[in-house]
Amino acid sequence: MTPITRPLLAVALSLSALASANAETIRVAIGTQDTTINCATGGLLIRELRLLEKYLPREGRYKDASYDIQWKNFTSGAPLTNEMVADKLDIGSMADFPGANNGTAFLKAGKQSFFITVLSGSTLGSGNGVVVPKASSITSLSELKGRTISVPFASTAHGMLLRAIAAQGLDPQKDVNIITQAPEVAGPALQANKIEAHADFVPFSELFEHRGIARKIYDGAQASTPTYHGTLVAGDFAKKHPEIVVAFLRAALEADRLIAAEPEKYSELIEKVTGIEAAVNYLYHGPLGLQTRDNSWKPEYRKALATSIETLKLMGRESPLKAESFIDDSYIRAAFKAAGLDYEARLKSYDKLPLKAHDAVTGKPITDFQRVAGIWLLGEPKVRHYASIEGAFADLRKLEAEGGKARGIYVHDLLHRIKLLAPNAWFVADAKGQLSAFLQKDAANAYAAAVKGKALDFAAAQAAAKAL
């Protein structure tokens, strides 16, 4: 090394050290709701598959930056909001109703948050539900007058319950006794018959059904009130680091693509992380799922947020929040563009994840989806699909005779077009032996009378299929 190059090298090393010393460490603190499984593409899957690291910006002003990615899991939206307002979290996912509380809390603190994407939802309103203990004689919401109903307070299920009770002509403040109860407390309470009814959000109504401790008597789809879960960001963080917000949304889009391609595989991953059975996860994330994964701000979801803000009044809370200024779709539009996706096309599409399958018995393509059914056997990586409920039940009998055991059996409500867990559904056998499924017993009875058929529970429907 010459005397000339030696000082040049020293200067270079000095500049490098200075740049390193001045390199920014950017905190990206993300609040998730792992057990709220339709938030999976905005949390659990991104974290477990390390998708955010793949998209974080590394050029321009981020060339020398390092990232401190922090993850924190919550069981509901309210405590997640508290930490966002306290500047302990930058990004968080929750439903429309707690999201309205989030925006209100930020404004009250002199700050602002933005709802930046939908993750999963239902323009029909499915996802929230009301259950009763398995042995309860109650079969409809109207029978809950004068009774005690528990619900996680300030949750989307709370908002649904208030609206549903009011739609029955009842006063939520006087005609029912609503108490607060988290899902992890409600499950044992239902099993021990310590509560008369419980309202909850994704996936707990179905989870309690699947575990045999409750029956769903009401689904949000009956109220025809759209609902969704999505992602919010603290306004200051979004304005300072818009590129990171877009990177997060690109990770969410990839998570969505992965679970769409292999819903059983990632339903298993969700079970591994949360303990929520894969069969329940698949009910939501599989083809024709109970809710639809959708990152676009459809008018129905904008309306859902406005309705949630109005519902705060039923709780005696006033909010200056306006849905039109709270929603910011610029980040998700940028993420779609960066990923080479067509946002406008998705915005116009209301299609669920399609079922592209052949009947497991006949091998023929399934083209009519009103009475399709599915069976997920223990030990099998994929769900078997059937063009008819009676075909599925007949095949189930054979599979069980051979030692097989179903981890999940799926049918679809004929009226509301929502996916159901068959063991808790009601059925009607018409004169031709064709089976149709229903969420509620009174709906099954009405349809049976209309078609001169017979209303059946799951066991009777299986027996009817045996007789075919």
Automatic annotation (TrEMBL):
Q: Where is the signal peptide?
A: 1-23
According to the lineage, what is the superkingdom? Bacteria
Per the record, a Pfam family?
A: NMT1
The record's section on InterPro entries has:
SsuA/THI5
Which keywords does this chain's UniProt record carry? Signal
Q: Which CDD domains match?
A: PBP2_SsuA_like_3
Pinpoint the SsuA/THI5-like domain residues: 99-265
Per the record, the coiled-coil ranges are none
Q: Which PANTHER family match?
A: ABC TRANSPORTER SUBSTRATE-BINDING PROTEIN (PTHR30024:SF45), ALIPHATIC SULFONATES-BINDING PROTEIN-RELATED (PTHR30024)
Q: Can you name this protein?
A: ABC transporter substrate-binding protein
Q: Which organism is it from?
A: Roseateles violae
